[in-house]
Amino acid sequence: MAEYEMQEMNLPNKEGKRVLYPRLVQRGQADTDYIAKTLAQKSAFSKGDVVGLLQELSEELAYQMGQGKSVKLDGIGTFVPSLALRADKERETGEEDSTHRNARSIVVGSINFRAEKELLRNTNYNCELERSQQKFHRSSQKYSPEQRLERAQQYLTQHPFMTVSDYANLNGLRHTTASLELRKWAEQPESNIGTSGRGTHKVYVRR
Question: Residues in domain HU (predicted)?
């Protein structure tokens, strides 16, 4: 059974009142070994067969996206590669005398995933919720800075990128506070958090 907790939104509603929204309490992570073992128990494939197929799928996904394609897996979702400049390269400004970025300056910075409706339906079907016994906390004091960094690092092991809103919702921070703190983490190499994109398209990724 999954648990949820109520968390305060960063912005008040039209009446100026703070409102709460439900957030899933994550219970660890089902990794490749666990998934392979589970599928092997449900099918005629061995655990090794499943691991091999998943590895082949990963390599084929990388190849197809490397050719400039998005990849759609029925019942799962669509994977779309997103480009970014290398960390040591500056963006083009559009001015005639500005440096023009060539292909060597550009990399696949992240891969976006959009879930199929069927996957959402199946997840809902398998999701039996109960409210967490953990009390709601109104401020960012719910987690220490070190805990917030750890939660962000864990989030990025499960998602290709993180937005400021994701970080704010994850840790119960106001948007401005979340933006400043994420910027601080990105400036510290030991945080293992970097950036991709710029301006309104800026996201945070694993280094």
Answer: 2-131
